[in-house]
Amino acid sequence: NSAKISHESAEKIQPKRAKANIWGIGDYISLQRLDKPSHMLDGKALLQMLSEQKPKDLPSLQKRSQVERVGVLLASHGDIDSLSELEKYAKTAVMKNPAVPLPSFTRGIASKLGWLAIRKEIINQYLAIGENTNYRMNSELQAEALEKALETSGIDADVFYGYNFEQPFVADALESMQKDDVKHIVVFNQSTQYSYATTAEDFMDVHDYLDENKDFAPEVLGVKQFSDDPRFRSLLAKRLVESVEKAFPGVPYEDICIVMGSHGLPEPLLEKNDPAVAQMINAVNDIKTRLPEGLLVKHGFLNDNFFPGVEWIHPTAEELVDSIVQSGRKHILLYGRLSFTVHHRATFYDLNVETRQKILELLPDAQVVLADNFNSDPELARLFADLTIEALEGKQHTVAIAPETEQVPLN
Questions:
Q1: Structure pTM?
Q2: Among 189, 318, 343, 352, which has the highest number of CB atoms less than 10 A from its own CB?
Q3: CB count, 10 Å around CB of 139?
Q4: Which of 387, 270, 315, 378 is nearest to 24 (CA)?
Q5: What is the pLDDT of residues 13-63, one digit of tens each?
């Protein structure tokens, strides 16, 4: 019942290269470069830079990849492996993240003052989860699994990962691709929904690199989200049932409650019609129909609400606890795969420390288990591979990231 985290055992490895990739099935995007200070202010402005590319007939990717190099970028905010990285990570997040409701000219001083204000709290959070989230290692394993899945389809591709707020940065991954003379790139976010605060930030980082390195002009297609894809929904439900059986063998479903934690957002982004929350709720409602009868599913948000005076979406995962107690169920599965494919601070702390602690305060005899995340799951890698192939063969709606593309507003 300890709140201290015991991480999945995995061999420590160093990233072989900056790997990156961004996922999202949606409308084709063309991003005209935005003014660097202002593009950080308004995630909605990113959608106003999008234009749609319909599915089209193209030669087989297998044939083309034998001639021109293909790369995949798995991108995200990233996370730290050591407390020595935390200050720079936190300050960079304040400087860049569209979810932070501050104008650009205030962000420099805000990052310094904000760090002083949250330093003790956030350090204690990382100490509670064992300091190291293994985020880079699991990103590396995820990239390797995708590379193997593409290889089984006859596609010789290099898969990279890169982050917005931590090394290796998205720009590091793209620099590696440029050195490798990659001609076709597909970008995924390591979360499953499309938000102005996540995938849109990835697309802007890619766009900025291309804008600053005009001698590098590959075809770049972004997958906005795959939360709506029936193949992902099926896999999510399948892994959820497997996690229940692994955590609570022999326990009747009527005594089990699943707490699904997903990416939280601040009200300013919700007011700009950020689409992620609707995608999350839609996915939860669909997953409920795919589960065995008797299982109870609760959904709450994991909010990075470090900034005073900013309201975030509710209910949080922690706020679900009273209703869990009222249900009378004492076998609680904490599940982070709805929004995330790799565990990080939010799932390890907000879900597996704060929510767990409150459950045990009210239900001391409850059994609370954090389910594994996807990481290098071969079936997720297969889905990524299929989405990559479909994007590059023109069989999916994608987002084209190219500074020179004409701006066409997307409704």
A1: 0.85
A2: 189
A3: 29
A4: 387
A5: 333 444 333 322 222 222 332 233 333 334 445 544 544 455 555 556 665
Total residues found in the chain within this entry: 411
Average predicted confidence (pLDDT) for the chain: 84
Tokens in use for 173? 């991954």
Task: Give residue 321's Cα distance to chain centre.
Answer: 25
* Cα distance between residue 48 and residue 39, in whole Å: 12
The Cα 330–Cα 166 span in angstroms is 38
CB count in 10 Å sphere of residue 285: 11
Phi, psi of 70 (to 5 degrees): -115, 140
Contact by Cβ (8 Å): 334, 356: yes
Instruction: Tell me the residue type at 73.
Output: L
> pLDDT at residue 298 above 70?
yes
Distance (Å, rounded) from C-alpha 329 to C-alpha 114? 40
Q: Amino acid identity of 133?
A: T
Helix residue spans in 250-367 (DSSP H)? 267-270, 276-290, 321-327, 345, 356-362
Task: Identify the bridge partners of residue 368 per DSSP, sorted by sequence position.
Answer: 332
Alpha helices in 329-403 (DSSP H): 345, 356-362, 378-392
Strand 256-263 and strand 296-302: pairing? parallel
- How far apart CA 163 and CA 271 sit, in angstroms, is 26
Q: Say what the pLDDT of residue 403 is.
A: 73
